[in-house]
Specification:
Strand order of the largest sheet: 3-2-1-4-7-6-8-5
Largest sheet: 8 strands, mixed
Oligomer: single chain
Helix content: 55-70%
Order of helices and strands: HHEHEHEHEEHEHEHHEHHHHHHH
Radius of gyration: 23 Å
Number of helices: 16
Distance between the termini: 61 Å
Number of strands: 8
CATH topology: Spore Coat Polysaccharide Biosynthesis Protein SpsA, Chain A
Number of domains: 1
Strand content: 5-15%
């Protein structure tokens, strides 16, 4: 049983060595000033939206694009209705987008849809008038200054820019809030810190911008792994490109609320991380060997945490089973496992609590939910343990669409939280 304690000790040391720098990141946004900005230039943009059966939400996204403070004469919105069986194409066209319909059940996923859309845009605009391309999911809603702020960072010379990711439905339950806190932490304590330190940031699914130059250098959109965003990020990081981040550009998206749906999505992510490391692991390690901190950072971003946690739980579980089979005292194993889980819980409370406190005013939910869901955040993260295990051994993991139903404008998102808070404070007591 001493071997188990040794394994847990080694895992703890490796975890600290791998991730202590990210805890230092939490201080960076508050102690390092923003870098001087370059003069802002007007750029012409294409907005890319891949949508599968999103008739319930896509109009609100297009509406938020049409409400931008940026010169709308420089923005054209394109939608690919990808294998849709509903009225997504019609709703998007009526909202003002240029719409293409795609039907291909053999090449399924956002990556293939984006490649199709970009090729259609090339056919429609052979003169290639766009300086950059925004990528959004159909359930997104943008703050009014989103494109204006992203354009500032793009004008600073960044060929790829990602943005601040907030959530429409933080307060729904422990699942939606778990996602939301993770993305808020990623925005404030990872990408914001990276930007201030001058290292590369990471694209996260939606709400990013890339230049025509990047598209040309990549030979078009050729990213089709289960996590095409991470593949796109790592592909460009290993070739030395520095991805920027715009903290002032805020978008909102809808998080899953059902565990089965969340399991399927995160299983895809976990398998996608393995795919990316399998494809680019050698390049990342070579970059680390040549002194690239960005390559080290991206490697830590896609691999070790889930693997280390899985190894720790597996080692303790195997030791417990072996002890029971041989009649040995397993109290040491239980104490060691409990200690590891408790330390992990407290660490995750620090991470989730830091994000909650830092982004308090940007979280649109009643106060009690902000506090309660910070306490449940570690349990959301613990569910990654079986998900990571499944990702290693599942025979087939495929892209599956997420059903979105939360149709809300930016004003409605803000008002809903304010209404809930007012009701809590003004409702009469039973004695009245």
């Amino acid at each position: 049983m001493d071997a188990v304690k040794t394994i847990n000790y080694i895992i703890s040391i490796v975890f600290i060595l791998c991730y202590s720098y990210q805890f230092m990141y939490m201080l960076v946004p508050y102690i390092i000033k923003d870098r001087p900005r370059k003069p802002v230039k007007p750029h012409r943009y294409a907005v890319l939206i891949s949508a599968r059966n999103e008739e319930a939400v896509i109009a609100k996204l297009i509406e938020s694009i049409r409400r931008q403070s940026y010169d709308l004469g420089l923005v054209t919105t394109f939608v690919v209705a990808d294998n849709c069986t509903d009225a997504t194409a019609r709703v998007a066209a009526e909202a003002g987008a240029v719409v293409f319909e795609r039907f291909d059940t053999s090449r399924v996923g956002k990556g293939y849809a984006l490649r199709y859309l970009l090729r259609k845009i090339d056919e429609l605009f052979p003169e290639r008038p766009f300086d950059g391309y925004f990528v959004f999911d159909a359930d997104n809603v943008l703050e009014e200054n989103y494109i204006e702020e992203m354009n500032k960072t793009f004008s600073d010379g960044y060929e790829i820019v990602t943005s601040y990711r907030n959530s429409k439905n933080f307060g729904d339950n422990w699942i939606s809030s778990g996602y939301a806190l993770w993305f808020l932490r990623e925005s404030q304590f990872l990408n914001h810190a990276r930007m201030k330190l001058g290292t590369s940031c990471a694209v996260s699914g939606t709400g990013f911008l890339f230049s025509q130059k990047v598209l040309d250098e990549c030979g078009g959109w050729n990213f089709f792994l289960l996590t095409e965003d991470i593949e796109f990020t790592v592909h460009n990081v290993v070739r030395g490109l520095k991805i920027g981040y715009c903290h002032e550009a805020v978008l909102y998206d809808e998080q899953p609320t059902r565990f089965r749906q969340s399991w399927n999505q995160r299983l895809r992510w976990a398998r996608g991380y393995l795919q990316v490391f399998g494809k680019y692991g050698g390049d990342l390690l070579a970059g680390i060997a040549h002194g690239s901190f960005s390559c080290f950072d991206m490697t830590m971003n896609i691999m070790p945490a889930a693997v280390l946690t899985f190894v720790g739980v597996f080692a303790n579980g195997a030791a417990a089973v072996l002890g029971l089979a041989t009649g040995r005292d397993i109290s040491v194993v239980g104490e060691s496992l409990l200690s590891m889980l408790l330390n992990t819980y407290l660490t995750l409370i620090v991470i989730g609590g830091g994000a909650t406190i830092s982004e308090w005013k940007r979280i649109y939910a009643p106060t009690w939910k902000k506090i309660a869901f910070t306490l449940t955040f570690p349990f959301f993260m613990f569910t990654y343990i079986p998900i990571s295990f499944a990702a290693l051994f599942a025979r087939r993991v495929t892209w599956k669409p997420i059903v979105h139903t939360r149709s809300a404008s930016l004003q409605e998102i803000r008002a809903a939280a304010e209404t809930l808070s007012c009701l809590l404070y003004t409702s009469p007591s039973p004695r009245d």
